[in-house]
Specification:
By secondary structure, this protein is mostly helical. The protein is built from 16 helices and eight strands. The protein has helices at residues 32-47, 50-55, 59-70, 76-88, 91-94, 103-113, 119-135, 160-169, 176-184, 189-192, 240-249, 264-278, 286-298, 303-310, 315-322, 329-345, and strands at residues 7-8, 14-20, 23-29, 200-201, 206-209, 212-215, 221-224, 234-237. The strands form three sheets. A three-stranded antiparallel sheet has the order 1-2-3, covered by helices on one side. A three-stranded antiparallel sheet has the order 4-5-8, with no helix packed on it. The longest helix is centred in the middle third of the chain and has 17 residues, at 119-135.
Length: 364
């Protein structure tokens, strides 16, 4: 069978439809050359008899194989996320054979689930199923898929007054240290619960962040010897107040013990009660990381230092997702800009506008 010539779609991607052994196979790619290459590969697999077994594989089985091939490279949290997708997302496709899943089928499920899930969730789902399909011999180009318009939701952060009330409210409680580490140092929850006392050097006033503790696919907490990103491994200078709090809690002879042995759910539950008692909204532990990034923005700390301090992988992530304005900051900025322009246009006696005489030119 001769491979048909790829044709360009309105979206800009290239498409070719193959018919092999009574099976209709759709292939899309960003370029004509890549589309032809993938089509030739699929045809070669079919002629070698390799494609028959793959064609009878369901999407769920393809995901199992995809995870198994990468199990030693993937984080336990990533695998857990994949399993959640496999169990709860795009269920209409999970038991279908990969050979029957084409661009239209995936697009139909995106359309159907757009009202239930965010754009981020939909993209995370296709980021798993498309490579799993490709491994099983069914190639779908994500560029050919359409997603709902992304609506950015402004992250709610604690105001300065609320944060002060919270830090006073948690003083002396079992969640004082995790809340301080999240708000003062901007640590992630996975980093906080992974810290051991050997990571604290009170003489040098330094805290070392170099690991994470996350849930695996069985919902058990496991330790990772690496942080979320390479930039997340970092050393942070401790203030005298933090040193005093940590020193008071530090055991004498157990450097391998966790600094925060309390479970994340217990931290959440106790934080909810404290927020209710002191009369501030409960926004969650991670909101304190957002608040910390916003404090650095307010203090005028250069983004390259803020990024290093918070362990963000990119400057864009810091600016787009974590830095927010505190209430009143916009008005302060408006007043400063207005004052500047008022100063350069101010005049004791405003000049009258010049009147221009209209001169008409006639041609004979």
């Amino acid at each position: 069978m001769k491979i048909p010539s790829p044709r360009k779609l309105k979206s800009g991607t290239w498409f070719v439809q193959l018919r092999l052994g009574g099976e209709s196979i759709s292939i899309t790619a960003p370029t004509e050359r890549e589309c032809a290459r993938q089509a030739a590969l699929v045809k070669a697999e079919h002629l070698n008899g390799k494609r028959t077994a793959k064609a009878n594989t369901t999407l769920s089985q393809a995901i199992d194989a995809y995870i198994a091939r990468r199990s030693k490279l993937l984080s336990p949290a990533t695998i857990r996320g994949y399993r959640i997708i496999q169990k709860h997302r795009f269920q209409e496709l999970m038991n279908r054979k990969v050979s029957s899943i084409d661009t239209n089928a995936v697009q139909a499920v995106i359309n159907a689930e757009a009202e239930k899930y965010s754009v981020k969730t939909l993209r995370n789902t296709t980021a798993l199923i498309l490579p799993a399909l490709a491994d099983a011999g069914q190639h779908i180009n994500e560029d050919s898929l359409l997603y709902p318009m992304r609506i950015e939701k402004e992250k709610t952060i604690y105001t300065e007054e609320q944060q002060q009330a919270l830090l006073v409210g948690i003083h002396g409680t079992d969640i004082e240290i995790p809340v301080l580490l999240a708000s003062w140092l901007g640590l992630r929850r996975s980093e906080i619960i992974a810290l051991r006392w050997r990571d604290v050097d009170l003489c040098k006033k330094v805290l070392s962040v170099h690991s994470a503790r996350v849930q695996d696919e069985h919902n058990q907490y496991v330790n990772k010897d690496v942080t979320k990103t390479p930039r997340s491994t970092r050393k942070l200078t401790l203030s005298p107040y933090l040193c005093a709090v940590l020193s008071a809690a530090m055991p004498e002879d157990n450097p391998d013990a966790f600094i925060v042995p309390t479970s994340p759910q217990t931290i959440r539950n106790h934080m909810v009660k404290i927020c209710e008692r002191i009369g501030i909204p409960f926004l969650g532990l991670h909101a304190l990381r957002h608040t910390n990034a916003s404090v650095m923005l307010k203090l005028g700390i250069e983004n390259q230092y803020a990024q290093a301090r918070g362990g963000w992988s990119t400057d864009a992530t810091l600016k787009r997702r974590y830095q927010h304005l505190f209430p009143g900051d916009q008005e302060i900025a408006d007043a400063a800009v207005n004052a500047y322009y008022e100063s350069i246009v101010a005049s004791p006696t405003p000049k009258k506008q010049k009147k221009f005489r209209i001169v008409r030119h006639f041609t004979k």
